[in-house]
Specification:
Radius of gyration of chain B: 13 Å
Helix content of chain B: under 10%
Number of strands of chain A: 12
Number of helices of chain B: 0
Strand content of chain A: over 45%
Number of helices of chain A: 0
Largest sheet of chain B: 7 strands, mixed
Oligomer: heterodimer
Chain lengths: ~120, ~110
């Protein structure tokens, strides 16, 4: 079974600053995906960024980037130039690459990020 | 393109009753997933349906059940409701083909058990 751990229940940062959210996971699988999802106060979950385990290059999406350390089973999210709209719950998630392709997501408990004006 | 829709938005039941939650996936998506988001517990996987079949089930008692219809919409049923079933229930859909791996989430149904 897979586990995902987010050790920072809450974080806050000033607008325009950079913030890093931590995530570690445990798995015996070799083929998997890692995700960061964002859940704003309106509660619709949105995908922020995705990393395929077999790719060594860290994924980036505009202001969002990850630091994927496969050997250490670490997957942190960096948000640069933070904006008020980044205020949300952030969930780290793991998905095994199964025979049907898409499998269930295993989530961490989330980090509540507040961007301070 | 319309996103994942869920109904109702809110549902209030009393202990022992049954609840039915509904989900319509994005057009063309064949896989539907159900997750429970209880306060302080993060998101827990409940059920996964693909092409009308139950593919996987999380560690929940049998009173949590569901089905997927020929049009790929899905229903989650919770029987003999207990107070701890109060949670936000999220539905997600994905295309189902192996090359895709993103799940698209709906807005959720807030179930309150009194």
């Amino acid at each position: 079974a897979q586990t995902v751990t987010q050790s920072q229940p809450e974080m806050s940062v000033q607008e325009a600053e950079t913030v890093t959210l931590s995530c570690t996971y445990d798995t015996s699988e070799n083929n998997y995906y890692l995700f960061w999802y964002k859940q704003p106060p309106s509660r619709q979950m949105i995908l922020v960024i995705r990393q395929e385990a077999y790719k060594q290059q860290n994924a980036t999406e505009n202001r969002f980037s990850v630091n994927f350390q496969k050997a250490a089973k670490s997957f942190s999210l960096k948000i640069s130039d933070s904006q008020l709209g980044d205020t949300a719950m952030y969930f780290c998630a793991f998905m095994k690459r199964g025979s049907f392709g898409n499998e269930k997501l295993t989530f961490g408990t989330g980090t509540r990020l507040t961007i301070i004006p | 393109e319309a996103g994942v829709t869920q109904s109702p938005t809110h549902l209030i039941k009393t202990r022992g009753q049954q609840a039915t939650l509904r989900c319509s996936p994005i057009s063309g998506h064949t896989s539907v997933y159900w997750y429970q988001q209880a306060l302080g517990l993060g998101l827990q996987f409940l059920l996964w349906y693909d092409e009308g079949e139950e593919r996987n089930r999380g560690n929940f008692p049998p009173r949590f059940s569901g089905r997927q219809f020929p049009n790929y919409s899905s229903e989650l049923n919770v029987n003999a409701l207990e107070l701890e079933d109060s949670a936000l229930y999220l539905c997600a859909s994905s295309p189902g083909q192996p090359i895709y791996n993103e799940q698209f989430f709906g807005p959720g149904t807030r179930l309150t058990v009194l």
